[in-house]
Structures are given as C-alpha cells and as structure tokens.
Design goal:
It contains 15 helices and 12 strands. It is an alpha/beta fold. It folds into 2 domains: about 1-175, Rossmann fold; about 195-315, CBS-domain (Roll), CATH 3.10.580.10. The protein has a 5-stranded parallel beta sheet, with helices on both faces. A 4-stranded mixed beta sheet has the order 6-7-8-9. The chain has a 3-stranded mixed beta sheet with strand order 10-11-12. Helix 2 (about 30-40) crosses helix 7. The radius of gyration is 29 Å and the shape is elongated. It starts with a helix and ends with a helix.
C-alpha cells in the first residue's frame, strides 16, 4: 500500500512540476495562437489521435462552452469525408506529442491546401506537425510519469493545460461573462447557480405589497394571504420604502393593531435586481439571515419577490 501511495505521489508531483515548466516557457507564440482563434470567423476545429484525441475533445468542449464555436474532428474520419466539415473560415488546432501521428497527414495537407490557419500543440518543433503549422505551441519534453516513456501522462496533462489556457485567455479577451456562460450551461448545478433572479421570482399579484397608510389589520391579512411571511411597504410614488417581517410584528405586539404599516415597517430593506444571479441572492440572504428579497428595478419600483425556497428548489445552495 505504501508503494502505491508513493507512486501516486510521484506521478502527481512530476505532472505538477511539468506544469510549472510549461507556464515558465510561454512566449509570444501563445499570444499569436489566441489572436488566430479570435480572428477566425468560423469555428475552431480540434483534432488528435489516441490519448491526444481525448484531450482534443475536452479542449473543443471547453472552447465551445466559453463562447468560441468549436468541435472535435477525428483525424481518421477526416480522411473519409469529415474534411468537408472544415472550412476556410475555421482555424485548426492539432495535437500530437511526437508530431508524427500518421492519421493527421491528410488533415494537415487539407489545411495547407486551403490556407486554413493551423495551430500545433506538440513537444517537437521539428516534427511534421511542428513544421507544417502556422503557430507551434511547444510543450516541454519531460518524458512520461510511467518511467518508460510509453504511457501518455505528463504529455497529455501539458496538452490539456495548454488548451485550457487558450480557452480561458480567449474567453477573457472577449469579456465573456458568467451571464454568457449560463446560456451554454442551463442544466445541472452550474446552470442553477447561474440562474437569474427574473427566472425564479414571483411577480404580479403574488407580490405582497401595502401602502404606508394601510392599517396593520389589513397588512396582516396581506401577509397571511400571500404566504411569504412579509409585506413590502410602498410610498405614494410606488417605490419600496420598507418591509414588515415577523420580527417587526413581535416588536410592536403591544399596540400592533393601533398602528399603520408605515409605523411598524423596517425602512430601507435589502433588495436585488432581476438580472442578478440567484447565487448572489442566496449570499445576501445568508449574510443578513433573512429568507426573502424584494426585487426592484433601477428606479426602486417593486417587480417581484424571491424566497430562499425558490432558490433551493432550483438547486441553488
């Protein structure tokens, strides 16, 4: 068991050290690659064979999910018709540690014939892939973690990191925001966290509201009918002036029914905008130890109400 743990620790340490070398070796060639990706009016075509192919698929998926249209083309299938999926408006990223994968030959020839920009990710600049490419992103030649140089480990980790670096650099250069990210991730936990308040809030007649002059007997009725445990108090201009919660009711219990809503309310309550993220609302509610937030527009007018349970049902925690 100790031997297995030491092997695992060695593998991880070797890959971590290799990533440090990769980061230190980045130069203007990387900037040229990001420029080529951003200049493409078509898609980014990512290709590789074997383990490099698995990495290429992940890079294509990361690019696509961060705002850069991209897909994976299998180099062997490309030789049997899938080259037709690549256009002059595209840019190609080809992965091969050795740079000599024979399955890439037809893809390389096609890109050269039609002047399609070719970015190589390889450890050998003098390889066929390195020489044929317009931009060659070199990964350090550090062997593999198996100790025999035959099991793709360090090389695939470096290729994956290079692809991630490209995707994130392009994403940030394009000012791709979390709101944009949600458009490509509507499902699952990530989609829930990136949900907007406008998607989850209650609006219209469901919102518990009353004027400051409303007798507390009527305000209590509104609280009971709407079911949120609160009522928002608006002024004559329709803007949210305050909120009445269970705590306000307890503090005024002695003469509660003799007062108006405006006399009982807590002024200047916390609010949130429709286009804010649901995760932000949960953070505010947790920090303030509250369960509801009124949703307002830039002018302070109430457009809805959000309860913590709405966020929990959507999977935002």
């Amino acid at each position: 068991m100790t031997d297995r743990l030491s092997i695992a620790s060695r593998v991880i340490s070797q890959e971590a050290d290799a990533l440090q070398d990769l980061a230190k070796g980045l130069d203007d060639t990387f900037v040229q690659a990001t420029d080529a990706i951003m200049a493409a009016t078509g898609r980014v075509i990512v290709s590789g064979m074997g383990k490099s192919g698995h990495i290429a698929r992940k890079i294509a998926a990361t690019l696509a999910s961060t705002g850069t249209p991209s897909h994976f083309v299998h180099p062997a299938e490309a030789s049997h018709g899938d080259l037709g999926m690549i256009t002059k408006a595209d840019v190609v990223i080809a992965l091969s540690n050795s740079g000599e994968a024979p399955e890439l030959v037809n893809l390389l020839s096609y890109s050269r014939r039609f002047d399609i920009p070719l970015i190589a990710i390889t450890s050998r600049k003098d390889s066929t892939l390195g020489r044929q490419s317009d931009i060659c992103l070199l990964i350090p030649q550090l062997g593999e973690a198996c100790g025999y140089g035959v099991v793709p480990t360090i090389s695939t980790t470096l290729s994956l990191a290079m692809g991630d670096a490209l995707a994130i650099s392009v994403m940030q250069a394009r000012e791709f925001t979390p709101e944009n990210f949600r458009e490509f991730h509507p499902g699952g936990k990530l989609g829930a966290q990136l949900s907007r308040i406008g998607d989850l809030m209650h609006a219209g007649d469901a919102v518990p509201l009353a004027r400051g002059s409303t007798p507390m007997s009527d305000a209590l009725l509104t609280i009971s009918q709407k079911g949120f445990g609160v009522v928002g108090i608006t002024g004559s201009d329709g803007k949210l002036d305050g909120i009445i919660t269970d705590g306000d009711l307890r503090r005024n219990m002695a003469d509660l029914l003799d007062k108006t809503a405006g006399e009982v309310m807590t002024p200047s309550p916390r609010t949130i905008a429709e286009d804010a993220l649901a995760e932000q609302a949960v953070s505010i509610m947790n920090e303030a130890k509250i369960t509801t937030l009124f949703v307002t527009d830039p002018k302070g007018m109430v457009t809805g109400i959000l309860h913590i349970h709405d966020c929990l049902r959507a999977g935002v925690v």
